[in-house]
Amino acid sequence: MDKRLLSFGHGYSARALAARLVPEGWHIVGTTRSAEKMDAIAATGVEPLLWPGDDPSELIAEFPNVLVSAGPGPEGDPVLSALQAQISAYAGRMRWLGYLSTTGVYGDHKGGWVNEQTPLTPTTKRGLARVRAEHAWGAIPDLPLHIFRLAGIYGPDRGPFAKVRNGTARRIIKEGQVFSRIHVEDIASALELSLGAPSAGAVYNLCDDDPAPPEDVIGHAAALLGLPLPPAVRFEEAEMTPMARSFYAESKRVRNDYAKQALGWMPKYPDYRSGLSAMLSQGKN
What's the CA gap between 250 and 127, in Å, rounded? Predict the structure, then answer.
């Protein structure tokens, strides 16, 4: 296997993948928009590339594996907006291209189950932008595209413990609301398995086995810390950012059976309880 990976938008999930691949001898180049993050990326064994800024065209020609984590903006997918011609020119030579999407593409199912064959009916601007981005990547001939639709991501430094400890956590109550989640380490393990066995055109839902109401997660985090249950606030009365409120516009349970079957993937953290317990034992928030 050619162990070279070009990572566009080298963020939270991509860093978790790199932590698995770098010790195995992979050469990873990760792009960032922030010059201040270059040293931190380099410290993980990943070669940083400031982009926009430096030109990654030569790397597209050389690197057979590409991970796209960058989300779509007002002008569509930022990678395709800038580099579609170069990607199209070398699509047939690529071995694997992974695109990190979201389960938000399925829209609202009032708590019902969805899988990879469920029609894409997003109800938010973010979800619609992701559907357009998926279609744009899928329209490139000969591209070995693999789409990973991620549920709500949590993990080290992205968990509920800090807010519970400092007293700012709230249990937002909206009747019938349920979310699927995924620990970042389980995203990384699925990506690594896919890199090892490419299947062009595949679409995978990545989530744990236990969709749950958000207030249950906050309550369990408080119990693990031995702290009082955070106060319950009705969704209609909660002070929330427009972004946070938009997540409550959709309620669904996401199935991960296909990823398990096709990749041989099993989440290390099959529910939020095991994931939160591991984070706490590791001293992570």
Answer: 10
